[in-house]
Specification:
The chain is an all-alpha fold and 88 residues long. The protein is 67% helix and 0% strand. The protein is flat.
């Protein structure tokens, strides 16, 4: 939808917009009392993540499938059994 604008903005500028949206999501999660706002902020973060992947010429669906398509990268299961303090 915004590919041409994001391409002109480049990866650094597009990344800054993503970070702004992550900050807004953090605020919405902290307040937690406005469901509509929370949904909007999750959608914004996902949209900016997808557009920066496009600008960086990364197929996000393919990257997700490659890393998580066979389950957790740590334990290999679809319902992760890694310790809670581990980053899979």
């Amino acid at each position: 939808m915004y590919y041409q604008k994001d391409l002109q903005r480049g990866i650094p500028g597009t990344f800054m917009w993503l970070m702004e949206e992550i900050g807004e999501l953090a605020s919405a999660l902290q307040s937690g009392n406005d469901r509509e706002n929370l949904e909007e902020e999750f959608a914004d973060v996902l949209a900016w993540l997808a557009t920066i992947a496009n600008v960086a010429q990364v197929d996000l669906a393919q990257a997700l499938q490659k890393k998580y398509g066979n389950g957790c990268p740590g334990c290999g299961l679809f319902v992760c059994t890694c310790a809670i303090d581990e980053k899979p």
